[in-house]
Design goal:
- By secondary structure, this protein is α/β, with parallel strands linked by helices.
- The chain has a single domain, classed as Rossmann fold (3-Layer(aba) Sandwich), CATH 3.40.50.150.
- The protein is built from eight helices and seven strands.
- The protein has a seven-stranded mixed sheet with strand order 3-2-1-4-5-7-6, with helices on both faces.
- Strand 4 (about 110-115), helix 6 (about 125-135) and strand 5 (about 135-150) form a beta-alpha-beta unit.
- Helix 6 packs across helix 8.
- The protein is globular.
- About 40% of the residues are buried.
- The model has no long low-confidence stretch (mean pLDDT about 95).
- The structure holds S-adenosylmethionine.
Length: about 210
């Protein structure tokens, strides 16, 4: 068992605690903020070896392409166990592993695609996480992200004030400057689309 930094340990504790409630707790994100509709399209046409980071309770499992091989990781055993239950009914292309986005237990250049939905809001050192995603990606591969980020303007400043309360109770941070971290990790954004205002974004990077 690795020794995780304190902020990561805090995330593990929160997600193990919230695993039973997550599908209910995230309904507003799913149905009002575009996550549900957007996730259906993320895996369209993907083939080869796919890594899903922070699989959670397995909300993306219904969309895993039949011919692909998916490795799904999460830092929370309880979230993975929910995802495993879903996979038993919905997909036979996936295997699961408990792992940290910031320290992926995979060889360099071992995946064709890396996918993450609503994960980097929780990762303490986003840049390190994106560098890891870049490292395990094969030449010509891509990273597909559906993430909520710090919105611009007044709303962003309000999120800065609310963030300590939200993150302490739920886990996710609502004011992460994720696009900046992607670039800082040496990745290039090839597509960026607003899914819900400038708050929820679909980002494709390489
Ligand atoms: C908001 S949930 C999103 C779950 C799922 N991707 C979805 O779209 O519903 C965030 C997930 O990221 C996981 N997580 C947080 N920090 C992580 C890390 N450093 N490494 C791996 N997983 C992490 C949590 O355990 C949780 O399952």
């Amino acid at each position: 068992m690795p020794t995780y930094p304190e902020l990561t340990r805090k995330q593990i504790k929160l997600w193990n605690r919230n695993a039973g409630m997550y599908d209910l707790m995230s309904m507003p994100m799913e149905h009002m903020m575009g996550f549900g509709k957007a996730r259906a399209k993320l895996f369209e046409g993907l083939t080869g070896k796919i890594l899903e980071l922070g699989v959670g309770t397995g909300r993306n499992i219904p969309y895993y392409p039949e011919g692909a091989r998916v490795v799904a990781i999460d830092i929370s055993k309880k979230m993975i166990s929910k995802a495993e239950d879903k996979a038993k009914k919905l997909s036979n292309v996936v295997s699961f592993e408990v792992a940290d986005v910031e320290e992926l237990p995979f060889d360099d250049k071992s995946f064709d695609v890396v996918v993450a939905t609503g994960v980097f809001c929780c990762v303490p050192d986003q840049v390190r996480g994106f560098k890891e995603a870049k490292r395990v990606l094969k030449e010509g591969g891509k990273i597909i992200l559906l993430e909520h980020v710090r919105p611009a303007g007044l709303l962003g400043r309000i999120f800065d004030i609310l963030d300590p309360i939200v993150s302490n109770i739920m886990g996710p941070h609502i004011n992460k400057r994720t696009l900046e971290s992607i670039k800082e990790a040496g990745l290039t954004i090839i597509e960026e689309k607003n899914i819900f205002s400038d708050w929820v974004k679909l980002v494709i990077a390489k």
